Amino acid sequence: MRMNHLGKLMLTATLAVIVGGSLTAAEKEGEHKAWHHGSLNAICTCENGHAEVRIDGDTLKLWLVGGGSDTNKAVRIPDKKIVLEITLNGSKTPVEKLTLTAKPNELAEENIGDCSQFEGKADWLRRAKLFVGTATIHFKGKSQTLRIEYPNGYDPD
């Protein structure tokens, strides 16, 4: 059986949905995917890059990733640690400091000082419902402000 051009297009679209799965609501609305199932926080602007964060028990995990829709691409930085000043539950004054240390991905041949992944531990993370953390990092060759808003993420745009 011969298929016309429209039939081939419909078959290709159907296969794409079956093989690739359907888009999530966030992807349909133009939002970016959090590949580590955390919350995305833009670094200065969305197109510049993101910090994805996730809390596992008493551990905050952070991945530095690309801007725009490149949230699946790691961005390495030279920092060996990131010190976040934390305000909890809408407070105006920082009440905690959380030091995140480099956790190099050996499969990606990362090293301390050339790393895209960081982790920090604190007991209060187990109870954290809402917090804002700020720090300065060396991202894409310049000093930039990192702002983490948990759990909803940060997007100044």
Outline the low-pLDDT stretches: 5-29
Which strand order spans the largest sheet, edge to edge or round the barrel?
A: 1-2-3-6-5-4-7-8
- Major β-sheet profile: 8 strands, antiparallel
Give the radius of gyration: 19 Å
Terminal-residue CA separation: 52 Å
- Which fold name fills CATH's third level, the topology? Immunoglobulin-like
- Strand fraction equals 35-45%
Instruction: Classify the oligomer.
Output: single chain
Helix share, percent: 10-25%
Secondary-structure-based class equals mainly beta
Please work out how many helical segments DSSP would assign. 2
Which key terms come to mind for this protein?
mainly beta, 157 residues, 8-stranded antiparallel β-sheet, 39% strand, Immunoglobulin-like, globular
What does this structure look like?
The chain has 157 residues and is mainly β. The chain has a single domain (30-150), classed as Sandwich (Immunoglobulin-like), CATH 2.60.40. Helix content is 13%, strand content 39%. The chain contains 2 helices and 8 strands. The protein has helices at 5-20, 25-28, and strands at residues 39-43, 45-56, 59-65, 81-88, 96-102, 117-121, 131-139, 142-150. Residues 5-29 have low confidence and may be disordered.
